[in-house]
Every structure is written in C-alpha cells, then in structure tokens.
C-alpha cells in the first residue's frame, strides 16, 4: 500500500511541474488597454517622436465661476451656444445688490443737490428781496438824516427845543442801524455759505459717487460673462444651486473651437528633438488610421509631471514631460477633450545617444 501511495505522489508532482512550466512559458494576457501610441513609444523610431495628447480649443477650455458666493438664479446659455466676449452667461440672485445700488444712487443725488445749493448760493427771489430791503432801509435813513440836519439848524436858531432835536437824532440813529443790518443781510444772501461748507459738500458728493461705483461693482459681480468669444462647451451649474468661493465648482466651460490644438506630452528623453514648425499628425482610436495633420506651434518652456496615461503597464509614471502644442490644419470630426496619439516628424534632429 505504501509503495503505491509514493508512486502516485511522484506522478502528481511531475504533472504539477509540467503545468507550472507551461504556465511560465505562456505570455500573460494584456490586462490593460493600450493605445497605438503606447505600442509605438516602446520602439521610439528614429524619425518620429511619439506622444500622448488631448484635443483642446485654441483658447484652452476655460472653466468659469462667479466672483462671489450666492445662489444661481438664471443660466442664459446652453451647451453648443455661440457666445461673444462680454456676453452674460449666468446670474446669481441679486435683489439685495440692486436695492443697495438704488440707495447709493439716491444718496448721491441728495449730495449733488446740496453741493449745487451751496455753490449757487441763494435763490434769485431771496437775493431780490434782500436788495429791496436794503434800498428801503437806505431811503428811510436818508429821510431821518435830512430831518435831523434840518432840526439842527432850527435849534441853532432857537426855533425848536433841545428835546425835539434829540428826538430827531435818535430817529436818525435807529434808521442808520436798520440800514446797516439790511446791508449785512444782503451780503449774507449774496455769499451765504463759507468756503469750508462748500468744500465739505464737495467731498461728501465725491464719497457718495464712490459708493455708487462700489454698489454697481457688487451688482456686476453677480453676473458671469464670457471672457472670450467662442462656444459653450459645458454647463455645470443649474438655477437654485449654491456657488461658494470656499468650495468653488465650475458653472460654465467655454472655448474657441473654431480651430483646435492638441496638447501633447513629450517624454523628457525626446525634448531635444522638438522644434517649433515641425510637421506633425495625430490619430484617434475612434477614427482608426485616419491622420489629422498639423504643425508644432508652441513648446512650453518648463517640464511638468506626466498627466496622460497610455495604458501600458510598463509605462514609467514618474517621468517629467514637455507640453507641446500642435496646431491642427483641419480638425475635422475631432472634438475637445478627445485623447489622441501625436506623431512629430523629428527626422532632421537626430536622437540623443
């Protein structure tokens, strides 16, 4: 019994070794998807620099939000709409801001009226009345002065008593005081306010106008406007949602898709072979082998961490890349955000050894 058991164990061991050997020799299935660029990057052919890229608008995709927190009241556009620079896209609830602007405008109008009152002086009616009063007082004074002079002569001729003379002189003094008071009143009406009062009113008017500007700016911040002419790519926010600066989220994305670029990530080993003006083309898995031609339009001047992944398990993820902007001649069916494989003709620049 024991020899049979030993023989059976030996047979099973040999079979296990055979299976494991066959398994080790069989290739592992490719568990992760691989783009055509991922396969080509392994070869790094002499004439071409191959990189992963993503399609974007000429202006990049601008993700927009409000300048202040609030509740979204209205969204004026939909995805795909053409917009002009400065066009309203969305608005927050702004009832309080409107009321504050109206209050500031009312205060500014009151300050302006006060300033004009001080600079213009009294009304013409007031000036006319004061002038007439001054003239009447002068005429009365002249009459009492002439009467006092006449009685002075009569007293010297012993024609009247001293009491009559003194009474006439007192009447003349009273009339002179009334004339002086009327003259001062006329001057006061003509130049009613001091320079300090006028200057103060001017400063108050300037402050009121500034308050109007602040209130108007606060109201304008409640509205989101397009920073460039282009197309609405996506509407993220809806009426009734809260937008907060403390946890900002996009409201609307816009971009100029009249022309498209491809932002390619060139491996740091190949950056010495990239030049502005080099011929390039891109491919997308969605369109098979169809090529979309273009040229290198701009090369970013600093390296950045790699963001796009090819799906190749052996791909290094800790490399730095150089972003290269490829201007497409005719984007055709390509859309913003599509992943593509970029091929740059660097045959004129030999690879580094």
Automatic annotation (TrEMBL):
Entry-linked Pfam families: HH_YBHG
Secretion signal span: 1-26
Ranges in coiled-coil conformation: 89-121, 165-192
Species, as recorded: Nitratidesulfovibrio vulgaris (strain ATCC 29579 / DSM 644 / CCUG 34227 / NCIMB 8303 / VKM B-1760 / Hildenborough) (Desulfovibrio vulgaris)
Keyword Signal: yes
YbhG-like alpha-helical hairpin domain residues: 99-217
Location in the cell: Cell envelope
Name listed for the protein in its UniProt record: YbhG-like alpha-helical hairpin domain-containing protein
InterPro entries xrefs: HH_YbhG-like, UPF0194_transport
Main location class: other
Example of a GO cellular component annotation carried by this entry: cell envelope
Keywords: Coiled coil, Plasmid, Signal
SUPFAM superfamilies according to UniProt: HlyD-like secretion proteins (SSF111369)
């Amino acid at each position: 019994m024991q020899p049979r058991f030993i023989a059976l164990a030996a047979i099973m061991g040999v079979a296990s070794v055979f299976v494991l050997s066959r398994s080790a020799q069989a290739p592992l299935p490719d568990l992760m998807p691989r783009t055509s660029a991922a396969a080509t990057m392994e070869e790094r052919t002499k004439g071409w620099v191959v990189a992963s890229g993503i399609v974007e608008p000429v202006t990049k995709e601008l993700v927009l939000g409000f300048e202040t927190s609030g509740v979204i009241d209205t969204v004026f556009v939909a995805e795909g709409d053409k917009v002009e620079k400065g066009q309203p896209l969305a608005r927050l609830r702004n009832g309080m801001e409107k009321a504050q602007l109206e209050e500031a405008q009312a205060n500014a109008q009151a300050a302006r009226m006060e300033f004009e009152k001080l600079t213009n002086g009294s009304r013409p009616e007031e000036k006319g009345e004061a002038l007439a009063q001054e003239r009447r007082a002068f005429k009365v004074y002249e009459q009492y002065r002439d009467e006092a002079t006449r009685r002075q002569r009569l007293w010297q001729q012993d024609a009247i008593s001293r009491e009559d003379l003194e009474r006439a002189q007192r009447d003349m003094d009273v009339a002179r005081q009334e004339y002086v008071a009327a003259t001062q009143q006329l001057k006061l009406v003509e130049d009613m306010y001091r320079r300090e009062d006028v200057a103060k009113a001017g400063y108050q008017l300037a402050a009121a106008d500034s308050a109007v500007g602040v209130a108007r700016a606060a109201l304008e911040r409640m509205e989101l406007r397009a920073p460039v002419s282009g197309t609405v790519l996506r509407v993220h926010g809806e009426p009734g949602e809260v937008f907060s600066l403390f946890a900002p989220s996009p409201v609307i994305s816009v971009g100029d898709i009249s022309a498209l670029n491809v932002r390619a990530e060139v491996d740091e080993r190949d950056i010495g072979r990239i030049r502005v003006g080099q011929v390039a083309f891109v491919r997308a898995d969605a369109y098979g082998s169809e090529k979309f031609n273009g040229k290198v339009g701009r090369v970013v001047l600093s390296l950045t961490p790699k963001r796009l992944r090819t799906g190749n398990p052996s791909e290094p993820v800790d490399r730095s890349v150089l972003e290269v902007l490829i201007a497409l001649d005719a984007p055709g069916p390509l859309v913003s955000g599509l992943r593509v494989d970029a091929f740059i003709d660097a045959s004129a620049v030999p690879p580094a050894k």
